[in-house]
Amino acid sequence: MKLEILTPDKKVFEGEVTSVTVPGALGSFEILNNHAPIISTLDDGKVIIRGAGKEHKFYTKGGVVEVIDNKVTVLAESVIEK
User: What are 19-44's pLDDT values in tens digits?
Assistant: First the structure.
């Protein structure tokens, strides 16, 4: 599936991934391929990206995640790569 992480200033990440864990407002949740369409608010916290045998971690400050047709878009106020 395709993942984009965007802030008001720039595109932080774009690429193919196998899973994404995000800090949802009601707790962290994982998004896998063929996930049902969803829009959720995000709390401050870690976004963990897994793909091609690698793992990337980002810390986001607030935002929204949208999943539709195997495309995940994270819109965050700010992002710091860990």
Answer: 999 999 899 999 999 999 999 999 99
